[in-house]
Specification:
heterodimer, A: 237 residues, alpha/beta, Rossmann fold, 10 strands, 39% helix, B: 301 residues, mainly alpha, ABC transporter involved in vitamin B12 uptake, BtuC, 4% strand, globular, disordered C terminus, binds adenosine-5'-diphosphate, binds magnesium ion
């Protein structure tokens, strides 16, 4: 297993956001974490990246315990994230945002190649490359956030609600690109989504989170046809 | 007319010194959202480093002249960079997650420590600052007295500002500084080591304060452990004048304070030289206190 999370707990003061989650992500897969708002999905991703500290449990990457590592060291190990709310540097140009994605890399020529790659993936970004990040539309910011996370050349890419607040037509494109990243680059992806239908359609394996615990997990195809899940998350009766 | 020109030249050279100090306040504020009240005392230490290093230059490069001045300035900048980094590590870093007021009070404590530690180590009486920069008259007529001094001050300050601009806007570390100033968490998700960027920022700001001190010594060649107080406060006023956090605005603020105080000295009375900056500070406090106490930003989660 590439990523193993064992009994993870995350608290904000008295609020227990994640109450003992255990999950695993296998190399090369797309795994999705679905669940209602407030279920603890983002807290889990933030704990993996080390920007929120776990209050209990363990996170292992390639067998190595990364639970207590500082965020920048976790990036260095090969985990990058396009976080919830995108967290684009509004004061930096789109190009500088991408450069920050590649902050730990020194292979200038390879970075240029990767920038061309994300331009090919999101042509819109190329047009907006010299604009300040804050001037980009929501959809453009989302593309930039994903592109920026890719510039780290991660082995594990964490995506937190890439479909949130963007036009439906773009949602489809973004999900196509997620599959493309996984297939072409071989990047393992842990995808957090409220859009369960979309997420289950691209993932191989799924975890359903409910109030900080894993309610159910299994192959995405099975979860997608589970009656309880269809009622609760896919809006079917 | 000629007198005005004279005042403007003096004002700009004083102002560019304030601007160099103001940049340190602004950069630290941009990254940590707090006013480093010990910054003026780092400036003072810069002057003392210059004072003690200058005699060592005699056997080395002959004591005075350009080479000596440059070496003295660089040594003082390096020493203050180290001091700034150390202050941040020992005094501010342990309080990083505490309320800003706690850090502010600590900064005042560090300031007092340097001032009174300075009195203990260097003695409280003023010391003559060596004439590092040759002060030959370039123009000396009844119209205008223009010494090489003010040109060197303005030129050096301008050169340092351009260098700073290059670092902040065109290097990897500078881009990281801007990223951190926007959002620490987002920056750490990029693999940026926040602590290193903060250290770098303190080093940069403190080095500029040291350079300012060496230039200041060439205008007021008398130094003492409390000398950082007024230039520090004036530069602070300069930094908050246009809303703290923007490098260009800090430079303009410095120039405004320098010009204002020179014009007040020349046209009203030297008595008000220091008072004018504090009058400006009081006006800012009355009309835009948010510019000083930190913008009301939603607490980032
Ligand atoms: N910074 C925070 N401070 C306090 N409570 C938080 C914070 N972030 C999240 N929470 C709470 O933790 C719970 C889980 O939130 P989150 O991980 O964001 O869930 P999700 O991403 O699944 O919507 C929610 O009850 C939320 O209100
Ligand atoms: Mg969330």
């Amino acid at each position: 297993m590439m990523l193993e999370i064992d009994n993870l707990q995350v608290s904000y003061g008295a609020v227990r956001a994640v109450k003992g989650i255990t999950l695993a992500v296998d190399q090369g897969q797309i795994v999705t974490l679905i669940g209602a708002n407030g279920a603890g999905k983002s807290s889990t991703l933030r704990a993996i990246s080390g920007i929120t500290k776990a209050s209990g449990g363990h996170i292992r990457f390639d067998g190595r315990d990364i639970t207590a590592l500082p965020a920048h060291a976790i990036v260095a190990l090969g985990i990058s994230q396009a976080p919830e709310g995108r967290m684009i540097f509004a004061n930096l140009t789109a190009r500088e945002n991408l450069a920050m994605g590649a902050y730990l890399r020194r292979d200038a020529a390879e970075i240029d190649k990767d920038i061309d790659y994300v331009f090919a993936m999101f042509p819109k970004l190329k047009e907006r490359i010299d604009q300040p990040g804050g001037k980009l539309s929501g959809g453009e910011q989302q593309m930039l956030a994903i592109a920026r996370a890719l510039l780290a050349r991660p082995r594990l890419l964490l995506l937190d609600e890439p479909s949130l607040g963007i036009a439906p037509i773009l949602v489809r494109t973004i999900f196509e690109k997620i599959v493309e990243i996984n297939r072409e680059l071989g990047t393992t992806i842990l995808l957090v989504e409220q859009n369960a239908r979309m997420a289950l359609s691209v993932a191989q394996y799924a975890y359903v989170l409910e109030t900080g615990t894993v309610r159910l997990h299994g192959p995405a195809a099975e979860i997608a046809v589970n009656d309880d899940i269809r009622r609760a998350y896919l809006g079917e009766h | 007319m000629s007198e005005l020109l004279q005042q403007i030249i003096n004002g700009v050279s004083m102002g560019s010194i304030y601007a160099l100090i103001a940049l340190g306040y602004t950069m630290v504020y941009g990254i940590l959202r707090f006013i480093n009240f010990a910054h003026g005392d780092v400036f003072m230490i810069g002057a003392f480093v210059g004072f003690f290093v200058a005699p060592l230059m005699v056997p080395l490069v002959g004591g005075s002249g350009l080479a000596a001045a440059v070496i003295i300035m660089l040594v003082s900048m390096a020493a203050c960079a180290l001091l700034g980094v150390t202050i941040e590590k020992l005094a501010y870093r342990p309080l990083r997650s505490r309320p800003k007021l706690t850090v502010l009070i600590t900064a005042i404590g560090v300031s007092l420590f340097l001032e009174y530690g300075g009195q203990l180590v260097f003695g409280p009486d003023p010391k003559p600052f060596p004439a590092l920069i040759p002060s030959t008259m370039i123009v000396n007529s009844s119209f205008l007295v223009l010494s090489s001094n003010s040109l060197v001050v303005i030129g050096t300050a301008l050169g340092l500002m351009l260098l700073l601009r290059y670092i902040v806007f065109h290097t990897r570390m500078g881009t990281a500084m801007r990223a951190v100033s926007f959002d620490h968490r987002a920056a750490s998700l990029m693999g940026i080591n926040i602590d290193s960027v903060i250290s770098f920022t303190f080093a940069l700001g403190s080095a500029l304060a040291a350079a300012a001190a060496i230039l200041y010594g060439s205008i007021y060649p008398s130094i003492n452990p409390l000398m950082g107080l007024f230039p520090g406060l004036k530069a602070f006023v300069a930094a908050v004048l246009g809303g703290i956090g923007n490098l260009y605005v800090a430079v303009i603020g410095g120039l405004i304070i320098g010009l204002l105080e020179t014009l007040v000295t020349g046209y009203i009375s030297p008595i008000y030289r220091d008072a004018i900056s504090f009058a400006v500070l009081i006006l800012i406090l009355l009309f835009r206190p948010s510019g000083i106490l930190g913008r009301h930003e939603a607490e980032k989660v």
